[in-house]
């Protein structure tokens, strides 16, 4: 046996994702069992998209290279309205999408994000203090609404970083993107931004377990 194959065998026995697999995989902190389940869910999401057409809500955690999806949403809007893509950015709107909700005329709905260090106040639609002994909370669906920079509302919000894993670090790729950081999301708040920065509030695509 080669050293690589032996390492794979040991990883399988101990319930870890093998190093050789990690080198060709999306970032993950999951154990082997949870990793396989997550991988199957990603394949199911993509196969459903292929078989049934564009989904009403995109599972953002299921993308391998998430930045390409975000760029595509902006590009579609730029081409449709004949606007330079450099003049566009997302206006983030937290929404509740039901099975009967139609697809948005502009932009896309996304789901699958977890809020770490805080919780979402559904009644007031803003950030709130984390609940006792609850490290993560489900984030509602988010409408990625492309708008010209000058038209985006200037409301009080927290510029929340979004990561693929809770590790919150990665390496810089040749494309200029980080392997872990995705983008910043403006989340409504009634408190100063420093309040949430000190609490390390962030959005996570995939939990460790």
Automatic annotation (TrEMBL):
Domain Dynein heavy chain C-terminal: 2-205
GO-annotated biological processes: microtubule-based movement
Gene3D superfamilies: 1.20.1270.280, 3.10.490.20
GO MF annotations in UniProt: dynein intermediate chain binding; dynein light intermediate chain binding
GO cellular component: dynein complex
Residues in coiled coil: none
Protein name (Swiss-Prot/TrEMBL): Dynein heavy chain C-terminal domain-containing protein
Organism in which the protein naturally occurs: Meganyctiphanes norvegica
């Amino acid at each position: 046996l080669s050293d690589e194959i032996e390492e794979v065998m040991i990883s399988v026995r101990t319930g870890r994702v093998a190093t050789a697999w990690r080198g060709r995989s999306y970032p993950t902190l999951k154990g082997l069992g949870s990793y396989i389940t997550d991988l199957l869910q990603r394949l199911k999401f993509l196969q459903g998209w292929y078989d049934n057409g564009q989904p009403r809500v995109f599972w953002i955690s299921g993308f391998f290279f998430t930045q390409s999806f975000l760029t595509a949403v902006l590009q579609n809007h730029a081409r449709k309205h004949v606007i330079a893509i450099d003049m566009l950015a997302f206006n983030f709107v937290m929404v509740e999408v039901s099975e009967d909700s139609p697809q948005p005329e502009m932009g896309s709905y996304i789901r699958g994000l977890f809020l770490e260090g805080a919780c979402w106040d559904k009644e007031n639609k803003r950030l709130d203090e984390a609940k006792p002994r609850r490290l993560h909370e489900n984030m509602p669906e988010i409408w990625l609404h492309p708008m010209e920079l000058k038209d985006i509302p200037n409301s009080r919000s927290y510029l929340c970083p979004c990561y693929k894993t809770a590790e919150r670090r990665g390496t810089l790729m040749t494309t200029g993107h980080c392997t872990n950081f995705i983008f910043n999301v403006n989340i409504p708040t009634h408190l100063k931004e420093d309040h949430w920065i000190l609490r390390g509030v962030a959005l996570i695509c995939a939990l460790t377990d």
